[in-house]
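Anyone able to model this chain together with fructose -6-phosphate?
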Amino acid sequence: MCGIVCYVGKNKAVPILMEGLKRLEYRGYDSAGLAVQDERHIDFFRAVGKIAELEKKTSGIEIKGTSGIAHTRWATHGEPTEENAHPQSDMNGNVFVIHNGIIENHQSIRKRLDKQGIVFKSETDTEVLAHLISLNYDGDLNEAVRKTMSQVEGTFGIAVIHRDIPDKIVVARRGSPLIIGVGEEGNFAASDVSAMVRYTNKVVHLNDNELATLTRDGFSISTAQAKSVTRTAETVEWAPEDAELNGFPHFMLKEIFEQPETIRNAMRGRLEKGEGVPKLGGIMPVWERLKECRHMVIVACGTSYYAGYVGRYIFEKLTEIDVEVELASEFRYQKLNFPSNTFIIAISQSGETADTLSAIREAHRKGAHLLGIVNVVGSSISRETEAGIYNHAGPEIGVASTKNFISQLTILTLLALLLGRHQNLSLTEGVDAIRALETLPGQVKAILSKANHIQAIAEKYYRCSNWLFLGRKFGYPIAMEGALKLKEVSYIHAEGYAAGEMKHGPIALINPGMPTVAIAPLDSIYDKMMNNIQEIKSRKGPVIAIATEGDNSLKEIVDDIIEIPPTLDFLNPIITVVPCQLLAYYCAGFLKRDIDKPRNLAKSVTVE
Ligand code: F6R
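re: yes, here you go
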């Protein structure tokens, strides 16, 4: 999705903006641009394709300005062309604007401005912002932006500069994230912390319908009604090296290999071993209501939804709470009627997913309490929920979510265990669960040490254009997640199915050219999985089994086996997903895909 980075300070802006744009590349984009101001002169450049194309355009040109705005665009209105890339400007080249989001009434504004003789140079909705701000400007840029905000409908995070006002950037947001970075040598604004983490870890989050003015020496925030707002900076824990490859060929692989540490980070300081009860400080503000809760709804999208799906089974196993899991994008079309004291749990890596945000807003309207499981500190979902638990997974840069999924599963387990221990779960069960949780990082590491074996399996099957992933109960969401991962990064068609559904249709597809990945650890439904595997084998379908170490009976039947260490049944998903991630990664590698930035995908889906 689109990305914003701005800087005003003591140093030349171009290298800082380019660095920031590169950090935003993972969000997905098709063109990029920047505008840099030096006194009353503005240089601006735009290019289709990678940031490297934009760098070519600026190379060899001396650009002295120390203040500027930069953007990566993911086309929504108009093709990915240079004319449609941002910044967009007014007719006189006074106002330059970059914009994330969608201006819904842009067509009616365009028609009105057309009649006034305004000539449009692009097909974008953003260009109307540049013209409106210019028309609304009479010496006060904040006022011009404020007035423009009142004239447009839709979502936006914008940054604006004006030729007459050097060293000042005005940013504003409604429904699209914008964060201010407070640095030693200048100040920043960005749609994502990772764009500025190299220069500062002090950040201030803008709320919807707020504007901020950035100068070299500081920033000020006000509302759309011109009321001044005081907000102090928070410190983010992410280190610059978190956003670097550190010798790995791709972020996806790096993040898969970080997973033992990701699990530790999700549990750090949260395990009370002796009592078998996790400690989760973030939910304490709602604890009295939460411990009485008997109905929960998990809402999320994509991989986070599959984590929620596993979560439902974990809650069923460990607590007395009824849990539903809903796709956030469908949730708000339902007739919502919650029993009293219902908690909604929103799960989101980015904390900015538009569908998930809309779902929690609707649930809040209907009286539900809101909890968040979010990775990005200070993100919209973390701020719009009453309480929550942070993943502490660090930045996830690969577009396909891997380590954050594992973190979400770990945190859902901690939450269910905490609630279960206040319900019927015994001390022994609690202590056993914590012991098993503590073993997980080592077990995941053991699977990662078999990466070469998994790569060899990928090499054997990557030419097959259709794959099936099967699982039951805890394995079913992993089958769906495994199929999603393969689709996303390798573009191979894959389906994730509940194994029990096989004979209701998908078995018709089985043939020697279609591999099935069977999630088949030794658990309570193992025998039933075994039956499904037999059904596939008797139709000559190749089977790759993800099976518990030492399971010799399965070894004899299947074509390939990936062994995993034994654990408690509700922790199996944390282990079984790892081979699926690696299979997807290596297939994508053999097919020479753009693994960290798969086509058409964005890391943070901030439009519905
Ligand atoms: C899949 C993937 C997406 C996200 C989904 C939700 O690999 O990354 O399916 O899981 O877009 O995103 P968040 O978790 O940021 O709400």
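The chain has a mean pLDDT of 94.
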